[in-house]
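Async update (no meeting this week)

Hi team, since we skipped the sync, here's where things stand on the single-chain job. The sequence we agreed to prioritize is pasted below, unchanged from the tracker. I ran it this morning and attached the output directly underneath so nobody has to dig for it. Comments welcome in thread, and please keep replies under the output.
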Amino acid sequence: MKIIGIVFIFVSLSAAGAIIGENYLSVLKSIKRAENFLNILLIGLEGGRLSVSEMLESAAKSGDEETVKFVNILKGGFRRGSLAASKQDALKSNFCKDETAVSSLLEAISILGKCSAEEQIDKIKYCRENLRKRYAAAFPVYSQKAKLSRSSGILAGLLAAVILI
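Output:
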C-alpha cells in the first residue's frame, strides 16, 4: 500500500510539472495563433475581394475555439460600429495570452476599414513583424520555464518518494 502511495505522489507531482510547463508553451502557441490571424486578414486585404465581416468569418473557420471566441468579440464590436476590442476582452478569450502580442494584434485590427487597403496592409504587416519579434524574444524564456517546470515536477516527485521510503 505504501508503494502505491509513493507512485501516486510521484505521478501527481510529475503531472503537475508537465501541466505548468504546458501553460508556458501555450503562451508561445497563442502568439503564433495571433500571427496566423493577421495572415488571414492580409490574404483578404491583398485579394481585395473580402469585406471585414468576411475576413473575420474566414479566420473563425480556419481557427480553433479561442479564435472563434475572439472573432465573436470583434464581431460584437463591429455590430456596434467599432471593430476595437479591449485588451481585457482579448486576454479573456485566451486567443493570445501575451499582453505585448495582444497590443500588437489590437493595433492591427483597429485600423481595419478606416483607411485605404494599402495602409491597412502596411499596418498589418508591421504588426505581424512585431508578433514575430515577440515570439523570437519569448521563445527562449518560455521554453526554458516549461523545461524547468517539467523537471521540477519530476524532481519533486522523486524527492517525495525518497522521503516516504
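Quick observations from my side:
The mean pLDDT is 85.
Residues 9 and 158 are 9 Å apart (CA to CA).
Reply here if anything looks off.
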